Amino acid sequence: MSIPPVGYSVLTPEAEACTSNPTVQGVQQALNQLAGQSLLAEDGSFDSRTSEMLRTFQGLHGLPPTGAIDQATVDALNR
Predict the structure, then answer these.
(1) How far apart are CA 36 and CA 18, in angstroms?
(2) 16 confidence band (pLDDT: 50, 70, 90)
């Protein structure tokens, strides 16, 4: 699985909450796969739960735990 590029510098929950974004959906799928269970809805809507899981992932992988999706986070999830 490969997550589509961010396309912007950063995707934030505030900017993406009301839309379905393929990058957000790919991040949700990757986080669920890493967790070994479906903890997030894979609907492309950037909600607070997605942001919380991103913060945890980012912190564990040496990235700034912003909870936002940037290209460095996408690259780490694609590894």
Answers:
(1) 27
(2) low
Phi/psi for 66 (5° steps) reads -90, -25
d(CA 48, CA 14): 9
Residue 17 binned pLDDT confidence (cut-offs 50, 70, 90): low
Nearest to 27 by CA among 1, 64, 60, 9: 1
Tell the residue number behind the tokens 């505030």, with chain if given: 14
Is the Cβ–Cβ distance between 76 and 63 less than 8 Å?
yes
pTM: 0.84
**Structure confidence by residue, pLDDT tens digits, 19-51:** 788 889 999 999 999 999 999 999 998 899 999
Using CA of residue 7, residue 12, residue 14, residue 19, what is the dihedral sign?
Answer: positive
E strands, the chain, in order: 10-11, 69-70
